[in-house]
Model the fold of this input.
Amino acid sequence: MNKIIVLSPFLLLVSVAGCGESQSALDQMMQNRCVHNHLDLPRTIGDGQECYSYSYTDCGGDPTPTASECVNYCAFDICQPGPCAVDSDCTMLLGDGYECKNYIVSNEDYGTWCGESR
Done:
């Protein structure tokens, strides 16, 4: 019985350590924790504001993951709450002159996001 008492705290520690919050695939690519940790990027820029995405090669990945100071995500240099589905998603968020289109960086397609109309 003593072995069970001695092992229980260890098992609890292992199970708690293994239950960390996992990042979604989108977060892993566009708001990567490793990039945030190395570059100390505070997520303070709200949706609709200008932004820049940064990468850090030591964080690995193919393509190299990025992060920004956006509260949500940075695509087309604009903070956005998430991918768009139709052009009206963009006009509601950013006004006229924006459309829902593929966001491609270095031949990597990140899905559809609001960008300026051509």
Remarks:
- The mean pLDDT is 82.
- Residues 2-17 form the longest helix (16 residues).
- The first strand starts at residue 54 and ends at 55.
- Strands lie at 54-55, 66-67, 73-75, 78-80, 98-105, 108-116.
